[in-house]
Amino acid sequence: MIIGGNYKEPTYWYNLKLPVTPWARSELVGFRCMRYINDTLKDQLTRNFQQPQRNYSNLNPVSDEIFQVYRELCQFNRGAVNPKVVSRNQFDDYILEVISVNVPYENDPMLIKIWLPLDSKPPYQPVIYFPGISAQYSHTVNDIKIGGKDYFLKSGRALIYPDYYSSFGRGDHDFSNVNSWKQTYKCIITDFRVVCDYIQTRSDIDRDKISYYGNSWGGGVAPYILAVEDRVKVGIVSLFGVASIEKYMFKEFDQVDYLPRVKIPMLLLGGKYDPDYYLEQQEAFYNLLGTEEKDKKWIIYESTHFIPRKDLINESISWLDKYLGTPDKIDD
Question: Which are the contacts of 178, defined by CB distance < 8 A and separation ≥ 6?
Fold first, then answer.
């Protein structure tokens, strides 16, 4: 086991225990030497630190009456999304659109990047993506890229990637403030629902076949979104689990209360040695899901905080094909 925090890893990994092969040899694996300035500092650094742990054998979701109060906290006054095309560019295999839409909680609009495949016939099945936590450390919308998610596009589907509140430099979010986290999650849920509202305005996107794909942070956020937005028909999460302590220590956004209210088909992809989401956290997520047993699937890989790409592609596309049908490709 090593402690994370080398120069190529996310900064939030600095105190995570990561399993690696004892034969690993690289510039990322090693040790640091230090000299204590004084005994006070030594005492602070060597003091035992216990991370709060959750009892996963005794998770009790709130009643429907209480959850309805939580759900109402996520409601917003719907207005005109007022979409505007910021840019539209055609490439060899796809069209990339950047759309500006209004959100009800502030005057500044939200941007949505949409990739449309050129080898398929509309209306396209939309996959709405929710990224990992690194999106909160980015300060520019230019960092929203299709990257390794191009397989959705190659399968004939449209990929939709919004700049959610608190990500890519959008929104005033204080990581150390509990109330800021509350507001952030309310805004994030609203953002996703505004994207669904926008989809309703387009004839070239199939409003009845919306799917959700969340990775890491997006896996943790999935219960909040999918429990309150019923226009999503299928869900996929890679790297997921119930938080080890109540999410940021406020009750309104405890995954335990939202998971039983998620009823759609769900594909769950997890790593056996994931330092962010241990197996017991993944198991709690799976068991709490309100989806019927026949429509939820949990696959565990011999990996840490990643899913082997070949399996991620094959399982995700097969899952969407199974529940939404195969996209209609244009004949060569």
Answer: 248, 249, 250
Q: Is-contact 206 126, C-beta < 8 A?
A: yes
- Which CATH number fits the domain that encloses residue 294? 3.40.50.1820
> Is there a domain that residue 224 lies in?
yes
State whether 194 and 150 are in the same domain: yes
pTM of the model: 0.86
Instruction: Specify whether 117 is located in the same domain as 235.
Output: yes
Total domain count, the chain: 2
Residue range 253-285, pLDDT digits in tens: 899 999 999 999 999 999 999 988 999 999 999
Residue-number span of the structural domain to which 14 is assigned: 1-49
pLDDT tens for each residue of 168-212? 999 887 776 778 888 899 999 999 999 999 999 999 999 999 999
